[in-house]
Amino acid sequence: MMSSMLKRLLSPKSINIAQSVVSIKRPDILPDCTRCYRSLITPQTKVVQFQSVCVQQVRHESFFKKHTAEHIWKSVTSVSNAGKKRGRGKGAGKKRAKNLNRGQVIGVGVDNMIWPGLNAPIIKGRDLIKRTQLPPDPERQARLVKLRDAMGSFKMLRLSPTERGWSGSKMPGRSIGPPDPINEYNFDGFDTKVLEFKTVFCMKANAGRYRRISVVTVTGNKNGLAGFALGKAADSRAALRRAKNRAGQKLMYIERYNNHTVYHDFFTQFCNTRIFVEKRPEGHGLICHRAIKTICEMIGIKDLYAKVEGSTNLQNIVKAFFLGLLKQKTHQQLADETNYHLVEFRKENDYLPVIVASPKGPVKTDPKEAPDFLQYVMDNKVRLRKKKFLPFYTKKTHWYIKEKKIEIVRNMDKAKYNLLAEYGEIRSFLTDKYPECRPVQKKSFSKQIDEDENQ
Questions:
Q1: What are phi and psi of 149, to 5 degrees?
Q2: CA-to-CA distance for 246 and 223, rounded, in angstroms?
Q3: Which is nearest to 266 in space by CA: 344, 345, 356, 383?
Q4: pTM higher than 0.85 for the full model?
Q5: Which of 161, 195, 202, 428 could form a disulfide with 210 if both were Cys (CB 3.0 to 4.6 A apart)?
Q6: What digits encode the pLDDT tens for the residues 129-155?
Q7: How many CB atoms lie within 10 A of CB 302?
Q8: Confidence class of residue 260 from pLDDT cuts 50, 70 and 90?
Q9: How many CA atoms lie within 13 A of 58 on its CB side?
Q10: Is the sign of the CA dihedral 232, 235, 241, 242 positive or negative?
């Protein structure tokens, strides 16, 4: 607008207007008009140097000055009722530690002083406020302590090492006691452990996002009787109680070999979860997934090896493992199905064949038709094993020299096992001719010592 006005003043028309104004027959107005137009007309050099000015609107009031810090912080962290239904503001209801800033005022500390511009205005009326020292406030610390005590306490959950679960104080892996009694039946000797504890959401048309707690538990008496169940509820305690009681109503008996391991190796699958379970001798321990280990402890299985392949969904692992345990067969069932003697080789028996079960009907004698035991019980499935490479020292010269030295006795153990299996003792072709040179057997040596003592 200013530039358009200047153009009008500098144009020839405006000068002519000024001259016409001067020609007015009013001598009293003439000096004033000419003085006014001279002040408005600007030289051309000054017009070229003129720069536009950007005017910005400034507000001296702010939203943060009208409310307290507590009110502003609450507006940020809180959530409306409609938002709660849709799952917003998940951290609003969590327990938090004490807010030590509560009761504190910026600029006010142990030294009670007035700081202009910090905890007091700079100007009061027409007077400029100066920094001054006020008398000490002995009750300040007591007021802060009383205010903090009124906020309540927040303590981290601490458990003894025997009560902790798989990962600290979280629920999976923790014991929640036996199921509730049903009528006159009490679950004496039972214990329940949590396998999975998670929050699930279901979207409803009216209620919005519906939040529930999902719990998977397993209960057992550590003597072959066990069961598992899934429970859901809006509250965590109700979900734990429901899953525990349902598991107590779905008990099943699991067969065990010598009360410490499974009867045989087996393969089991549920959905995309595949588990290869292998039988282990006494004292081996449980080398398996933590959920399978917890289930074995509830059943009473002490020695086991299990390899999980595919999906590691916990519910699928639990279902697959229980299916495999229920499908395993006893030694007598295997002998009746195949019509062959079931023979076992154990280290404590020097790997001698021991018949553990015989078929009740006719016995097949053709060894070529006998199925491979491992393939038969594993349902023709083979676990993926890594290829084993020979150690690096087998390519060295000293290893070749050692093998050359023990070449004479390298098959001695195999020869002993064959003699024990065929003749029942370690002997040679000279044993009948020189019976006094017969080597002493382990069991016969102990019998001979007992006979000498009795004589």
A1: -65, -30
A2: 19
A3: 383
A4: no
A5: 202
A6: 888 888 888 888 888 888 888 877 666
A7: 19
A8: very high
A9: 3
A10: negative
